[in-house]
Design goal:
The chain has 312 residues and is mostly helical. The chain folds into two domains: 118 residues, no CATH class; 102 residues. It is built from eleven helices and no strands. The chain is extended, with a radius of gyration of 33 Å. The protein starts with a helix and ends with a helix.
Length: 312
C-alpha cells in the first residue's frame, strides 16, 4: 500500500502542475487580456494630459517622519513667522522646478536645524567634558550650529535655482532653433511647441510641456507663455516669450523672431563666458601677488641685506 500512496502523491503533484500551467495559458489568451477602461481612454487624452510630475521624496515618504510630521509642521510655522518671506521661498521653489510647498520647505529647514543642533550639542558636550568653564561657548556653539543648519538648507535651495537656470540657458538656443525650424516648416506656434516638447528632454522642455498643457487646458497661448516667463524669471527667456507673444498677436513671421532671439541668447552666453574668464583671470592674480611676488622680492633683496650685514 505504500507504493500506492507514493503514486497518489506523485499524481497530485503532476495534476497541480498541469492545472497551474493551464491557468497561466488561459490568462494569456486574448480573451483574458482585455484592455481596461483606462487603456481605452488614455490614447484620446494623451495630447491634453499634464506632464508627469517629477518624483521627489518628501517628508511623508519616510516612516519616522510621518510620526513627526505634526511637530515638524508646527515648528516650521513658527520658523516661518520668525523668518518671513513666504513669497520669496515660493518663488524660488518654482524656479528650482519643485512644488511651491512653503510648509514642506520650512519643515525641511527644521530638520536641518535639528541636525545642526545635534552636531553642535555633541561638540559642546566634548568641549565641556574637557573644560568645565567652557559652558557658555558650548551653548553658543550649539545655537550657531542650529542656525547654520537652517541657513544651509536655504542656501541649497538658492543653489538649485541657480543651477537650473544655468541649464535652461544652455538648452535655450537649441530649443529656439528647433522652434524656428518647425515654424519654417509650416507649423503654427502650438504645433512647433508640441513637436519640440516631444523631441526634447531637459528643464526647458519640461517648462514648455507645462506651458503647452496650460494652453490646451483652456488658457490662451500668450498667457501660458507669459506664465512660463514668470515662473523661470530669466531675462533672456522673458524677452523670447515677449517676442513670440507680439508675433502671435500681430501676425509677424515667427521664424525670424525665434532665430534672432536664439542669436541674442548665444551672444549673451558668449559675453557671460568672457566675463567669467575675466573674473577668473583676476582671481589667478591673487596667488601671484600675495605668494609668488613676495618670495621673488625676498630672494632679490636678501643677498643685498646679507652683504650690508657683513660690511657693517
Amino acid at each position: 500500500m505504500s507504493w500506492l500512496a507514493d503514486w497518489s502523491w506523485t499524481g497530485a503533484a503532476l495534476g497541480l502542475t498541469w492545472a497551474m500551467g493551464a491557468l497561466l495559458v488561459w490568462r494569456r489568451l486574448p480573451g483574458g487580456r482585455r484592455p481596461t477602461i483606462d487603456d481605452r481612454v488614455a490614447p484620446y487624452l494623451q495630447d491634453v494630459a499634464l506632464p508627469p510630475p517629477t518624483v521627489r521624496r518628501g517628508i511623508d515618504d519616510h516612516g519616522l517622519l510621518v510620526v513627526l510630521r505634526p511637530w515638524l509642521v508646527r515648528a516650521g510655522a513658527r520658523l516661518d513667522l520668525a523668518l518671513g518671506g513666504q513669497e520669496s521661498v515660493r518663488r524660488r521653489l518654482q524656479r528650482a522646478g519643485q512644488a511651491p510647498d512653503v510648509e514642506g520647505f520650512r519643515a525641511q529647514q527644521v530638520l536641518w536645524g535639528a541636525g545642526g543642533a545635534v552636531l553642535g550639542t555633541a561638540g559642546a558636550t566634548i568641549a565641556v567634558a574637557r573644560d568645565r568653564s567652557a559652558l557658555v561657548p558650548a551653548v553658543v556653539l550649539a545655537a550657531v550650529a542650529t542656525a547654520a543648519g537652517v541657513v544651509l538648507r536655504d542656501h541649497l535651495l538658492s543653489r538649485a535655482v541657480r543651477r537650473r537656470e544655468e541649464r535652461i540657458l544652455q538648452e535655450f538656443p537649441t530649443v529656439a532653433e528647433l522652434l524656428a525650424l518647425s515654424v519654417s516648416a509650416g507649423e503654427g506656434a502650438a504645433g512647433a511647441l508640441d513637436r519640440v516638447c516631444r523631441l526634447s528632454r531637459g528643464d526647458l522642455a519640461e517648462e514648455l510641456r507645462h506651458c503647452l498643457a496650460d494652453a490646451r487646458a483652456g488658457s490662451s497661448l500668450p498667457v501660458a507663455l507669459q506664465s512660463l516667463a514668470d515662473r523661470t524669471g530669466l531675462p533672456g527667456l522673458a524677452r523670447f516669450v515677449d517676442g513670440i507673444v507680439i508675433a502671435v498677436e500681430r501676425g509677424t513671421p515667427l521664424a525670424d523672431v525665434m532665430r534672432s532671439q536664439a542669436q541674442d541668447v548665444r551672444e549673451q552666453g558668449r559675453r557671460a563666458v568672457m566675463e567669467e574668464g575675466g573674473r577668473r583671470e583676476i582671481a589667478m592674480m591673487t596667488p601671484v601677488v600675495f605668494l609668488i611676488l613676495p618670495v621673488t622680492v625676498l630672494f632679490a633683496v636678501f643677498p643685498g641685506l646679507q652683504l650690508l650685514t657683513l660690511t657693517v
